[in-house]
Design brief:
The chain is an alpha+beta fold and about 90 residues long. It has one domain. About 45% of the residues lie in helices and about 20% in strands. The chain contains four helices and five strands, in the order βαββαββαα. The chain has a five-stranded antiparallel beta sheet with strand order 1-2-3-5-4. Strand 4 and strand 5 form a beta hairpin. The longest helix is centred in the last third of the chain and has 22 residues. The two termini are about 20 Å apart.
Length: about 90
């Protein structure tokens, strides 16, 4: 699991942070889409992997899209862009 932070002066760092696991799943900040405490309880109940970082909870984008269908399109767009950015970062590091 690797963490990334998108550069911006507008949003808080935790909102610009995402994680990418070895299978290509993007983990996004739950607090951007729902109440973090509620999401934490749901993730635990569902047995879904999560990331805790700097006091925030990050969940798989696929889970967020399923649990919060109102945000599904937005989540997919963000996850696709996050994957693309992560690939660019990895390529630049080599």
């Amino acid at each position: 699991m690797e963490g990334f932070v998108v550069e911006s002066d507008v949003l808080s760092e935790w909102l610009r942070t995402f994680f990418l696991d070895d299978d290509g799943e993007v983990f996004l900040p739950c607090g951007a889409f729902a109440d973090e405490r509620t999401a934490l309880l749901c993730l635990a109940h569902d047995g879904v992997q999560m990331v805790r970082n700097e006091g925030h909870i990050y969940a798989p984008a696929s889970w967020i899209a399923k649990e919060y269908p109102r945000w599904a399109n937005t989540v997919r767009i963000i996850a696709d862009k996050a994957r693309a950015n992560a690939c660019r970062c990895a390529s630049a590091a080599q």
